[in-house]
Design goal:
The structure is a single chain. The chain is α/β, with parallel strands linked by helices. Helix content is about 35%, strand content about 15%. The strands form three sheets. The chain has a seven-stranded mixed beta sheet with strand order 2-8-7-6-5-3-4, with helices on both faces.
C-alpha cells in the first residue's frame, strides 16, 4: 500500500484514499473563471464528436508526470481508477470493467453476445461501426427504423425480440441524431426486455445532459450492461479510456473473454482519467461552452433554412435537403472535415460542435 501511494504521489495523484488533490503548482479556478483553450487546428476537425478544448488542465499535468512510470505495469493505478468510478456511480468496484475506450467494451459485449449465436437488435440510424464483425461471429443484425422525430422506437424494438434475439443496443443520447429516450419509457423498456435478452446501453454522451445514468439499475439486473467513455466530455479520445458498468456476475463473464481484465489502459491514460474525475470545473465549463456554441450553430443553420434535430449532445444532426450548394465541397474548400450523409431520405448529416471560432468558420463556409 505504501509503495502504491508513494508512486501516486510521484505522479501527482495520491494523497489520502481517493482524494487526488495535490497539483500544488496548478491553481484550479472556479467554473465561472475557467477559460478553456481554443486550439488552432488545420484542418478544422468536426467529424468525430471530440472535445475541442483538449483534456482538462489537471489531466494534462497528471499524464505528463505519469510518463516516467510507464516502465511499470499500472495494476495499482487501475485499481484506483476503478474505485473512483465505482464511487462516482454509487456502485462497488466489481461493477466496473475498464477498456481501451468504449470501443473495447463494445467489442467485448459483442463477443459475449455471439457465444450463444442468434441476432441482436439496434436502431437504424445509430452508432454502428462496432457491428462490422457481427456476421463473422455468427450474429444477425436486426435494424429498427427511428421514429419520425429521430428517436429510438422502443415499442418496435421490444416487438422485434424473437427466440433468437440475444441483445438490444441503445445509444442514449443517440449518435448521430443527438436525441434522447424518455427516461421512464426507457426504464420500462429495459425492465421488460431484460426478462429475455441483454440490453446494452451506450452512454457516451450522457455527460452533456442533465439525465441520470442508468447505472443504479445494474445491481439487481444481470441483463443490463452500460458503457461509458472518457473520450467525449473529458477530452481523452486519443488516450482510449472507457468502462463497462454491470452486475458483478456479468462483469466476471465479460472479463473472462480477456486474457487479463482491466489492463488495456496505459498508465498515462489511467492517470489522466483519475485526474479528469477530479476536475469538476472543467466539466462545467465544457458543458457551458457546448450549450452556447450549439445554440449559435442551430440559429445559424435555421437562418440557412436547414432543419436541425434538438440535440442532447456535442453534435448536431441536420438536413441538407434545402441546401442548394455542394455541402461537402464547401467544407473541403474551407479545410473543414465533417462526416457523411447518414440518411438519404432528407439528406441528413452530422457535425460536431467545436469552439465558437470553429463553428463561425463552419457557418461562413456554408454561406
Amino acid at each position: 500500500m505504501n509503495n502504491r501511494r508513494n508512486w501516486l504521489k510521484q505522479i501527482g495523484l495520491g494523497t489520502i484514499s481517493l482524494g487526488f488533490i495535490p497539483f500544488e503548482t496548478f491553481a484550479n479556478p472556479l467554473a465561472e473563471d475557467y477559460v478553456l483553450p481554443d486550439f488552432d487546428t488545420s484542418p478544422i476537425l468536426l467529424r468525430s464528436n471530440e472535445n475541442p478544448y483538449g483534456p482538462s488542465p489537471l489531466a494534462r499535468i497528471a499524464m505528463t508526470k505519469s510518463v516516467n512510470n510507464s516502465n511499470r505495469y499500472g495494476w495499482d493505478l487501475e485499481s484506483e481508477l476503478i474505485s473512483a468510478l465505482a464511487k462516482k456511480n454509487n456502485l462497488a468496484d466489481n461493477n466496473i470493467l475498464l477498456g481501451a475506450g468504449s470501443t473495447e467494451i463494445l467489442d467485448l459485449v459483442l463477443q459475449y453476445t455471439a457465444l450463444k449465436k442468434g441476432n441482436f437488435i439496434m436502431a437504424e440510424t445509430t452508432y454502428n461501426y462496432w457491428t462490422a464483425p457481427c456476421e463473422k461471429l455468427g450474429l444477425k443484425k436486426i435494424k429498427i427504423p427511428l421514429t419520425k422525430d429521430k428517436k429510438h422506437d422502443l415499442t418496435a424494438m421490444l416487438k422485434a425480440i424473437d427466440a433468437d434475439t440475444k441483445m438490444i443496443y441503445i445509444c442514449n443520447p443517440n449518435n448521430p441524431t443527438g436525441t434522447i429516450c424518455d427516461r421512464e419509457k426507457l426504464v420500462s423498456f429495459i425492465n421488460e426486455a431484460t426478462k429475455k435478452v441483454i440490453v446494452f446501453v451506450d452512454e457516451a454522451y450522457i455527460d452533456f445532459t442533465k439525465e441520470q445514468s442508468l447505472s443504479n439499475s445494474v445491481t439487481e439486473n444481470k441483463n443490463l450492461i452500460i458503457t461509458k467513455t472518457f473520450s467525449k466530455m473529458y477530452g481523452l479520445a486519443g488516450a482510449r479510456v472507457g468502462y463497462a458498468i454491470a452486475n458483478p456476475a456479468t462483469i466476471e463473464e465479460i472479463s473472462s473473454l480477456k486474457s487479463s481484465a482491466n489492463d488495456s489502459v496505459s498508465v498515462v491514460s489511467t492517470a489522466g482519467a483519475i485526474a479528469s474525475l477530479q476536475d469538476e470545473n472543467f466539466v462545467k465549463q465544457v458543458n457551458s461552452n457546448n450549450e452556447e456554441v450549439k445554440k449559435y450553430t442551430i440559429a445559424q443553420l435555421t437562418q440557412l433554412n436547414l432543419t436541425c434535430i434538438p440535440s442532447y449532445s456535442n453534435f448536431l444532426y441536420f438536413s441538407l435537403e434545402n441546401y442548394k450548394k455542394d455541402y461537402f465541397k464547401q467544407l473541403e474548400n474551407h479545410n473543414i472535415l465533417g462526416t457523411k450523409i447518414y440518411e438519404e431520405n432528407g439528406k441528413w448529416t452530422r457535425i460536431t460542435i467545436g469552439t465558437m471560432n470553429e463553428m463561425q468558420l463552419f457557418i461562413a463556409a456554408l454561406k
